[in-house]
Amino acid sequence: MADIGEWYQRMPQFTKWWLSLSLALPLLGRFGLLSFRYLILSPEDVIYNLQLSRLEESQHPVLPQLSRLEEPATNPGVVLQLWRPVTALFYYPITPQNGFHYLINLFFLYNYSMRLETGTFERKPADYLFMLIFNWLCLVLYSQIVGMATKLMLLMDPMVLSVLYVWCQLNRDVVVSFWFGTRFKAMYLPWVLLGFNVILGGGGMFELLGILVGHLYYFLAIRYPQDHHCAPLIQTPAILEQYFPPIAHPSGYFGSFGYGGQPEQQPPPGRGRGGHSWGQGHVLGGR
């Protein structure tokens, strides 16, 4: 238990919060302490508190298994339910059909969020938080404008893939290992995951959305400034930097690099970030 506690304490702060809430809300829902009907995201529920229809539930790839276990709640009236965009980010239904996919999401969340937070954004916590907020807001806006057509009621899948995509673009030439011993450059990893979800899960729309959101951030904040030698098109608000100021390097400068700089340097062979031995170039599978 001491090792687990030490591992948890060493985790970078935003990855720790994200992982903790992504464990807490699904487990509370799994044991019946919270109803999934008050955690998912849909335009009607956010604004008017209308009951999610049985037709919408039946068309969603995940929710039908839960809807059979719960009776619908009564409609208490017209109120704003502004917590839903937040809870929809952390909640994911744990069922026999979805449990493995949920664990894979947690693995990607921890692995790639930590790599970004302790690598590219190591001394720029406000920049990393802004990236998370930007990606989340893009997903929420999409869900409120056109999300009804795609039944985007859970944000974990696209949010995790958006962060993974940013890491892959910053480490394009790093060779990663995937299932069945396949190896390829990191730049192809998001598309490989998209293909697997299309083949195995019959979906892919949420993963594609995550790729698009991740690319939007990467282009506006990093790629465009690099190509045109100009200021980024989106910048971290000053209020975030007030609460999460840059961390001074022992040599005296702040941050490993700013927007438009070079991608993170890979650790020496056999040494990963945070004291864990991940192995060089083996991100997903074994050696």
UniProtKB/TrEMBL annotation:
Q: Where is the composition biased (Gly residues)?
A: 271-287
Q: How does it sit in the membrane?
A: Multi-pass membrane protein
Entry-linked SUPFAM superfamilies: Rhomboid-like
Name assigned to this protein: Derlin
Keyword annotations for this protein? Endoplasmic reticulum, Membrane, Transmembrane, Transmembrane helix
Where in the cell is the protein located? Endoplasmic reticulum membrane
Q: Which domain of life is it from?
A: Eukaryota
**Family classification:** Belongs to the derlin family.
Give the source lineage, highest ranks first: Eukaryota, Metazoa, Ecdysozoa, Arthropoda, Chelicerata
